[in-house]
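Record type: monomer structure entry
Structure origin: computed from sequence
Chain ID: A
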Amino acid sequence: MKYALIVILTVLIIIFAVLVIGLMTGNQSFSGGAKAGILFSKNGGEHWDIFEETYKIEVETMKFNPDSGDFLVGTRENGIWKKEAAGKEWQEMNFSVLKGARVFDLEKYDNSGTFLAAVFSEKRGRILRLENGASQELYFTSLPQYAIFGLAIHPFNSKILWAVSSDGGFYESRDRGGNWRAVFRFGEGLVSLTDHPYLAGRLWVVTSQGKIYGTWDAGKSWQNLSGGLGKFSGADKIKTLILDKKTGILYLGSEHGLLKSSDGGKDWQEVSLPLPTGVFPVTAVAVDPNNSAKIFAAAGNQIYLSEDNGFSWRGAVLPAKRLVSAIVIDPKNSDNIYVGLRK
């Protein structure tokens, strides 16, 4: 009898330990959201659901085409996933160059559903054009192990493309990607590119050393805009830089938190979130394209929403254990919000 009790107690202890470890590590089924790749809300962020078929992927970037209704997602190691307007499920794009590829940026090229993609595949950075179920390579880095981190398209002349690379180069093509030249070369790698949708040639880059540079002349000359970040500890550990198209305000997410600039990056102000500074980095930011007062910011696996230009916030814990890497708001219906996650 005593031996039986010992066996029963041992079994109960093991079961309890497994449950505790499961809770600590988030070891849940993907239907519970622990391994979700993409979440969505249809009511402005009040309630979140899961695209369950995306549970294996880690999201790097997302781009929505409101004209065609196509939605593309660039992943960390699983290439590009796509959901068509009429489709109900996500599907991995079946191109050999995308197998195991890491996708850093996606840009909507035209209204027909054509996209440009910056990918790292087979040890090189590459720029691809994706259209009508076909893939065309426009550029690859001359040296292995370098990546293309950002893309931009001239707002009034789609023949002109820009790209930035970890080799420090700011590149331009004036014939839709057929030929490229280095317009400017920095002494450190470039890890992101942000462009202005209405001012041609107005762009910003972030370097691998956490500096921000801006240009008014499509990359011929650059201004260092990093000086204003020095008063914010951790602000040089930049996670995201976006531009509100309506107001021209830059929003910067970093290990410090959330900052904004109303003068193109010369001066920065802190936007106070309802969490201590530096506890969680702000990894993704989005502004409602129809209402600039409505801002979404992500820290950890939490989303914060402000409807008064960042003066006050309310938060929501997402049904997933992963960190938020991207936020996209449907420009035709701002209640539709998509969130990408990664480890």
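Annotation 1: The chain has one helix and 28 strands.
Annotation 2: Residues 2-25 form the longest helix (24 residues).
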